[in-house]
Predict the 3D structure of the following.
Amino acid sequence: MFQSLSESADFFLFPDPGYTHMFFESEIMMEAQTCSTGYGKPPWRFKGRALYQFHLVKSDVARALIPKEFTLVQAFGYTLGGFFYANYDHSPAGVFDELVVIAGIVWNPPTSCAWASKVLVSSNEACLHGRKEVGLPSHVARFTQRLATDPRPERSRGNRFLNMIGLATTKPSSRLHLDTEVTELSGRTHTSEDFSINLQSSVPEENSKVWLGPFIKMSLPSFSGRTEYNPNLLKYSCQMECRVRVIQPLQIYKAPPITDLRTERQDAEEQQSSNSAHRAMAETNENRRHLSLSVMLSKPILALEFNCLNMNVEDPLIISE
């Protein structure tokens, strides 16, 4: 079991086999910090556990989120997007969670790179570092986990050989599933914004034994930048060492909206006093938020779980100012 998300929490999005059946809820709340001081010089090292889920994303949705200078890798009106969800128990910013929305894949000869349209983290320090140093569209978010009853019937065990070599999907529990709600927070008061998503994962049966998969090394190249915090176009790479296995894709659905009447009144007053440039920026951000939600809610095709993860993030290179 990985280190807990908080002092009172000891559960993750990917529960270990043999977890005792009990109700549990953890809530990560961030306190504002003024500067990013723990990262030091690159490469920045992260350890923990992660999941990379691939989705079929409509090309027009991805195209609206990716800079025009890139060629979108697409076929039959779709590109390959999805999300990267990680629980870090060791990092320059300490223990935190991260959800990266991958809008699509762009061509960069001789290979291709991912483009992140939105990054949500439970650490203010990680948010500031991602914005300034890596050029990511990072935002602070609240990650809430809850173990709940799963009314769906039990599924078959499938191919035993695939299970032995770590390529079969995990058998869901007929009783329990883990709900992880990720809600973007805004401003110093940490009021909720419109971007709120639920990730639902199956809980393995108690005392079940599952092979974590082979140990591999890989590189995940990505582009970033073109944000208000870092307008340059950047390229960076994540060097990863981990054990990988195929799992059942997580079910994704939009969380119910949370209305803050005080915030709505403040927004109305600010909108009346703001100029046209500010309104245009707000409309652009709102549009990108809804497009990123569309990426998360698109059709999943494959989910890879990364255990015993060791990841080094290299210093981004400026490819266009």
